[in-house]
Each structure stands twice: as C-alpha cells, then as structure tokens.
Design goal:
Rna Polymerase Sigma Factor, Chain: A, 4 helices, about 70% helix
Amino acid sequence: MARPRPTEPSTLTEADAIRLAQRGNAAAFEFLYRLHSRRVYALCLRMVNNPSDAEDLAQEAFLQLFRKIATFRGESAFSTWLHRMTVNVVLMRLRKKALP
C-alpha cells in the first residue's frame, strides 16, 4: 500500500508545508498562500482602507514571505509571524509614501 506523498494538499499539514517551503518546494508555498491569503489581504485592507493598495500589499507580503520563510524558527505560531511580517510591509509602504 503506497503512502500518500506529503505534497498532496489533502495530506499536507501547515507544519509540513512550512518545512517543505523552507526547502524551496513551490507546491508547499502555494498551500501556505491558499491557507493565509484571505487573512493577509484583510489585514492590509484594514490598514490602508483601499482594496487596490491592499491587493498590492498582500502580494508584497507574500513575496517577502517567499524571501524570508527560511528565517521562520517556529518560536511563535506561523500565523503570528506572518501577521507581523505583513504589518511591517504595510508600515514600510506607508513610511515611503509619507516621505517628501
């Protein structure tokens, strides 16, 4: 009897997806995106109150996640870590906008 592969969405847990994404697995990263994209977008929308800007910022947050996922150590919940990263992305954009 064959064991299901851990990259199949039905058997993949968030913890497995994080470990696989840290090793560069694109399917695992997509799984994390699908799991958290609504929450990230909603956070961006609450912070900037503009749907178009919120979409751009959510995309930027996931690009940042792609670059930085290897630094996630698991000392906090992944959702907490992603929330903080998203807030930082939005704040940096707001600071750049505020500069003369």
